[in-house]
Amino acid sequence: MAVESKVGRQPSGMLVLRTLAMPRDTNPSGDIFGGWILSQMDVAGGLMASEVSKGRVVTVSVDKMVFEKPVQMGDTICVHAELLRVGNSSMDIKLEVWARQLVGVYEAERELVTEGVFRYVALDEKGKPRKVPDNPHFFKR
Predict the structure, then answer these.
(1) CA 119 – CA 60 distance, rounded (Å)
(2) What is the pLDDT of residue 102?
(3) What tens digit of pLDDT does each residue of 13-46 get?
(4) Pairing of strands 75-86, 57-62
(5) Phi/psi of residue 77, each to 5°?
(6) Which is deepest, 8, 58, 82, 97, by most CB within 10 Å?
(7) Rounded alpha-carbon distances, angstroms, from residue 130 to 118, 122, 125, 126
(8) pTM given for the model
């Protein structure tokens, strides 16, 4: 388990999504479903990929993910995104999820929950891959 204050690691990339883990997102043991966390990561990555490509994108793959710690109901998760690569029509985005308790007992230290690399492909209006246009805010060819 990587704890920011003990290891010194900071989130990499930009904060793209911040949300609260709610009771409806828990499994029978009271932990937040890993699938819910994965979906939040995909939402965040899709937001960045859409901005980078200036249009519609789809998720095509997710690289190996390991859950380092469980997320509890009431934790706030923050998803940070970093653009790693832009190809002709695809983009690789590294996503990190960090969590901390904000409801009940406030925890100042955030902890790394999981990270992974998501690949997105830009699509045209017919659903076919399209070239990712230059976008100086995010990358230069």
Answers:
(1) 6
(2) 79
(3) 999 999 999 999 999 988 999 999 999 999 999 9
(4) unpaired
(5) -105, 145
(6) 97
(7) 18, 6, 9, 10
(8) 0.89
